[in-house]
Amino acid sequence: MRAVAPTTYVRGVPSSAPSTPGSGTDVDPGYHDHLHWQRYQAFFPGALRLSAANAPEEQRWRWRGLDVHVDRVERPDAPAKVIALHGVGTYGRMLAPYGRLPALADLEYIAPDLPGFGLTGTALLGAKYSDWVACARDLVRRERARDSRPIVLLGVSTGGRLAYDVAATTRVDGVIATCLADPSRDEVRRVLAARPEMARWAGLLSLVREPLSAVRVPVHWMVNIAAAANQSQFANLVWGDELAGGGWISLRFARSCLATAPAVPPERFANTPLLLAHPAEDHWTPPLLSEEFFNRIEAPRRYATLRGAGHLPVEESGLADLDRAVRDFLDEFDLQ
């Protein structure tokens, strides 16, 4: 019997994918087996909803010993690509309806499950926020190697902060973010945490040493998943999704998210156009927290308010505003 190498990650299934960075194969099992994502679709307008028939192609990318799950909608003739980055407590497939917005529907669409969420595993000691930055950055470089089309990052929720950090450390052509709150600030940690008093944990977590930092706790113990959406039924779905808000994160990851400063101060973020499209009724990260950071950005920037929308925007008014803002942004910077 052939010996099988031990797995080094705690979620996801090993594949025979080649180890060359940038290689991809079909994922099995995939989101045809984990069907919770289908339950989110009822909350989106009909034209944005996914089904098994129109879902993205699933690929697996071998990265640093992990099989990173990637959703992709191939459009070889598209003028640009959009890479969608999720935040804590979500995963790539949850963002697919945003990729169906009319402003984005003609672009090639790519959405990874970042280490520890969705169908991507994590190292035995758990991922760190810096692993998310490195993974997203290497995915950008992978796409650059494939062809020369412009790349726009779409960061939803804490994925907005991630998109900013990736753009600060590697070349992309634009950033669209729904949130830019800096969790290294006390006032931001207070709103991100499951309870405001838990913001003090950032200092305590810094005292946790390996291997204790590998201890995992429920996501909703650490972050305010209940405020993920203004529609309580949607938020409850996120809470109960074992691949998202119902999953587990290591103390190592929580510590790194709370303690890591932006890759560069906003005054030095000067080269990449950025659109902040912030939900007006965001009860998790109020617009003011993002605006304070956004107003210091040196690069060309636009701001849009998503009327009536919560943290994960599903409301028609907010989605219409998002579509219009994205279209204007892409037109202004010749990205479509």
TrEMBL record:
A Pfam family annotated for this UniProt entry: Hydrolase_4
Keywords linked to the UniProt accession: Hydrolase
GO molecular function ontology, one term from the record: hydrolase activity
Biased amino acid composition, Low complexity: 14-25
Region (Disordered): 1-27
Serine aminopeptidase S33 domain sequence ranges: 79-316
Classification via PANTHER family: ALPHA_BETA-HYDROLASES SUPERFAMILY PROTEIN, HYDROLASE
Name assigned to this protein: Alpha-beta hydrolase superfamily lysophospholipase
Organism encoding this protein: Saccharopolyspora dendranthemae
